[in-house]
Structures are given as structure tokens and as C-alpha cells.
Amino acid sequence: MRRTALAALIVLFTVAGCGAGGSNTDCGLDGCTVTFPRSGDASVSVLGISAQLVGVDAGAATIQVAGQTVTVPVGGETQVEGFAVGVESVTDTEVVVRVRPGAGG
């Protein structure tokens, strides 16, 4: 019984995300979708790591994830510190990024 409660708390904290600077997070068991405002200084904490939109240029977003800076094209995905980081869309007002546990690191 105690292990079940502990496991439930771990899952709750793992899927929880918090944003700042106008960002929005939506987390589930398979990862988190983060919507960053295209302008401003927005960062989030998801799945135990921090993520911040650095900038957008020519259809690719530069994101700092777990202390590493990566540039990912829209529709693309890369591995960072054991997480898969993908850019789902870029508009004039927002950038949607997907962070999920993944292989590699």
C-alpha cells in the first residue's frame, strides 16, 4: 500500500510541469507539450528538466534543454540528455515544443 502511494506521488510530480513568462504546458504520461510565446523570456520546468525558447530563425527553433542548446526544425526532433525534443509548430505568436522521455543523451 505504501509503495503504491509513493509510486503515485512520483508519477504526479513527473508529469507535472510549470511555466513562466506566458508559457503553457500540457503534460501526460508520454511527455509534455510546451507552448512558448515567440517573444519574451519564457522558460518551463518539465519532467525534471528546464526548457527555454532561445529564438526562431528560418523555420527552426533554438531551445535550451537541460543546459544544452539545440536547434530543431519544425517537424524535427533531437535527443538531449535522455529526452526527445521536437518542434511541432512555429507561428507569428508562439512555438510549440514536445519534450518526452527518449533514448540517447
Explain what you see:
- Helix content is 13%, strand content 58%.
- The strands form two sheets. Strands 1-4-5-6-7 form a five-stranded antiparallel β-sheet.
- It has one helix at residues 2-15, and strands spanning 17-20, 24-28, 31-37, 43-46, 49-57, 60-65, 68-73, 77-80, 83-90, 94-101.
- It has 105 residues and is mainly beta.
- The radius of gyration is 14 Å and the shape is globular.
Largest sheet: 5 strands, antiparallel
Give the spatial strand order of the biggest sheet.
1-4-5-6-7
Morphology: globular
Q: Helicity, in percent?
A: 10-25%
What is the number of helices? 1
Q: Care to give the gist of this entry?
A:
Residues 1-20 form the signal peptide. The chain is mainly β. It has one helix spanning 2-15; strands at 17-20, 24-28, 31-37, 43-46, 49-57, 60-65, 68-73, 77-80, 83-90, 94-101.
Descriptive terms for the model:
single chain; 105 residues; mainly beta; Tick-borne Encephalitis virus Glycoprotein, domain 1; 5-stranded antiparallel β-sheet; globular; disordered N terminus
List the helices and strands and how they pair.
Layout: H1 2-15, E1 17-20, E2 24-28, E3 31-37, E4 43-46, E5 49-57, E6 60-65, E7 68-73, E8 77-80, E9 83-90, E10 94-101
